[in-house]
């Protein structure tokens, strides 16, 4: 559930800086799509020789145009730079906000530090929404004033420097405080707070979700640029027969984060006894598909393992007359359009509106309810989140006895935590009638599905039934866990806890013995291993599977 959890990285994502993030994201998307478009053009020109023989003039000017525009874009120096600087500013707002929340929860209310974080966040916000900058840099379609950009860059850089040094100082003391006090309740409370912040409207959460750290963003850009520079090297490959071979071990990984996916795949392969029998089905969004393909083409997985890469859009059966979430998102989009009319007007670029819609992200999240249709030939599939690391050979999961159940997962409840009552609205008569509020919840992250049992139990229909009832969000609020708990209520088999150990993204006191014994560890929570705010004691578990020899990883300053 990387996509969803990433959405909750910072509370207080108010209107203060949203227009800025909005623009910067749009600029990024436009840039990527312009690049992709040009790439397509150049592929067309280079793969259709007859065009040049029959009409040399057109082809020549076409090519020249492509070259010129591409160079202009690639070297356009200002737009790209503006985009990167602005992104850096908004990313730091999220980061500083996260630290402010932690400081507050650690009850350092009166401390100098908390005040400084607060001030810093405010300063950042003022900076990116300063009318002089907004007008000269973000609301212009053409020329960016270099002088003003330079000034903006300098101000952002100064603030980033301050933020970095404050975070470095705070991080140490917070990590220690967290360790010493074992503030489990506090941690839960912060987690809840962040969840709540995420629920504060799709718009704010979308911006948080989109506030990808600069390094991830840089990596995706580099990969796309690589494809544009060498289109002949990155032709689409034909589907392999292994993709549909039910005797192999199949994984589903749905993510828009290239480096995270590469870590998951790498960690599986490195720990597999027979890697050539493992098949990864990676699904991403349209925007990241090219980047993913280039990555796995430049850095093929070892051991003869197989990787299939697709975009959500490639699954034609997912249309809004069939999929409740898509229908609901369309309704939400209409409402959103009304609310955000101002922003839409300001940029007059209606075409890009659809990328500000949570549809792509959310459909990627809800894909997990469609395995039997996505992979009709398969009998079992293992679903992995993109924030996990695999530490053992997992093949036993394909032969584990699920007692005829559809789904196997590790349960997460203890005491009164993580029971159904926490996820579903038991004041609702339908929920009350069907479910036990004390029933133990499980987690996504590592889930084995028996697709034949799924087809027999008609689990997708179950899911559709409830998702349709929840149009007004009275049964549950957001996310995929509540509908998952509903859909697989009586069809889940509990797996041994060592299969899936969670909490590495928020809980500083997970025992190292438990971690070392785990088949899969999960960085659920906001402190993802690829972020600055990662808990340092767990970071190596993840970074040791990062392909740090890869030139773009080095170029993009991941700092692992
Ligand atoms: C939507 O998909 C379903 C199957 O998933 C199909 O039967 C239906 O014809 C599709 N509808 C449209 C409008 O494409
Ligand atoms: C948006 O554009 C429409 C038509 O161009 C105009 O009537 C409306 O006042 C504009 N809204 C805002 C908030 O600028
Ligand atoms: C829970 O369900 C009841 C009954 O439908 C409804 O009145 C209430 O608003 C719901 N609670 C939430 C938080 O949606």
SSE layout and pairing:
Layout: H1 2-6, H2 18-47, H3 49-54, H4 56-75, H5 77-105, H6 112-128, H7 131-138, H8 146-181, H9 184-199, H10 202-210, H11 214-229, E1 249-254, H12 258-271, E2 278-284, H13 286-298, E3 306-311, H14 324-339, H15 341-347, H16 359-366, H17 371-374, E4 380-384, E5 388-390, E6 407-409, H18 420-423, H19 429-434, E7 446-450, H20 451-457, H21 459-469, H22 481-487, E8 492-494, E9 500-501, H23 512-517, E10 520-522, H24 536-543, H25 551-555
Parallel strand pairs: 1-2, 1-4, 2-3, 6-8, 9-10
Antiparallel strand pairs: 4-7, 5-10, 6-7
Helix pairs in contact: 2-4, 2-5, 2-11, 4-5, 5-6, 5-8, 6-8, 11-13, 14-16, 21-22
The protein binds 2-acetamido-2-deoxy-beta-D-glucopyranose (3 copies).
One 2-acetamido-2-deoxy-beta-D-glucopyranose binds next to loops.
What do you see in this structure?
This protein is an alpha/beta fold. It is globular. It folds into 3 domains: 210 residues, no CATH class; 235 residues, Spore Coat Polysaccharide Biosynthesis Protein SpsA, Chain A; 44 residues, no CATH class. Helices cover 55% and strands 8% of the residues. It has 25 helices and 10 strands. The longest helix is centred in the N-terminal third of the chain and has 36 residues. Helix 2 runs parallel beside helix 11 and helix 6 runs antiparallel to helix 8. The strands form 2 sheets. The protein has a 7-stranded mixed sheet. Bound molecules: 2-acetamido-2-deoxy-beta-D-glucopyranose (3 copies).
